[in-house]
Amino acid sequence: MGRCDQVGQHQTGLIVVTRTLHLLSGGAGQGLVNELKVQLETATHTQLSCTFGAVGLMKQKLLDEAPCDVLILTAALIEQLTASGYVLAGSARPLGTVKTGVAVKRGTPWPKIETPAQLKAAMLAATGIYFPDPLLATAGIHFMKVLNGLGIADVVANKLRPYPNGNTAMNAMAACDDPRVIGSTQVTEILVTAGVDLVANLPLEFELATLYTAGVHSRSTFSAEAQVMVDILASDATAALRTKGGFLVGA
Fold first, then answer.
1. pLDDT digits (tens, 9 = 90+) for 53-110
2. Do 241 and 113 form a contact (C-beta atoms < 8 A)?
3. For residue 109, what is the DSSP state?
4. Is the dihedral of CA 61, 63, 66, 67 positive or negative?
């Protein structure tokens, strides 16, 4: 829930109180929120406190009563949380659909991954495979299904490099010294990571397209400000920015 934080004092002795809006968001929303943070804080007259991570973990933080005013999660989860009373009915707005892609370190050759056979060859050739949490992250759960579908999950088990979310996975891949590594996560997390390149989306046979939605926590102390934030994130004015960051707007 929102709360007030004392952050300073005027020379006249008057206390300065700043309202804080707390965001729990899947990693797909990180680049968008960071780009708009100043605008969002100005429009809501608040400071933003943002937590990004696997959507399953963000849901659990909400259920564990972590401070929260705004949520960015998959549309399916927002719908469930609205039905169970955690998200304010009527507050949710779609941000766009995000696909899952394949990445390599910047400056290294791009493998062909247009077909399942090519994707399989690329995974077998890699010396390390970076991806998000296979139990809690949307893209990580799906990627394990892809490896099983390719019949190579056991073969590449010693190459797997799972991280808590796609952002940390991509940053770790960018920082490693091996040019023969490969990674997979949502394109929004690939595009905002310096040092990696988006090769392409997963082949159509393994495509994952996830609609993300922003909504207001039903127990938010600052629900009006939270709704302003949600409306800005989903507005026509930010559509181009969302598209640039990997969201398929209107899809």
1. 999 999 999 999 999 999 999 999 999 999 999 999 999 999 999 999 999 999 999 9
2. no
3. P
4. positive
Specify the number of domains making up the chain. Answer: 2
Strand 70-74 relative to strand 209-216, pairing: antiparallel
* Concatenated DSSP letters of 17-53: EEEEEEEEEEGGGHHHHHHHHHHHHHHHTEEEEEEEE
- Domain with 67, as residue range(s), is 3-95+213-248
The encoded tokens of residue 23 equal 């965001």
pLDDT in tens, 130-140: 999 999 999 99
User: Do both 103 and 202 map to the same domain?
Assistant: yes
The CATH code of the domain that includes 115 is 3.40.190.10
What does the block give as tokens for 174?
């960018």
Residue type, 246: G
User: pTM of the full predicted structure?
Assistant: 0.88
Q: Does residue 150 share a domain with residue 109?
A: yes
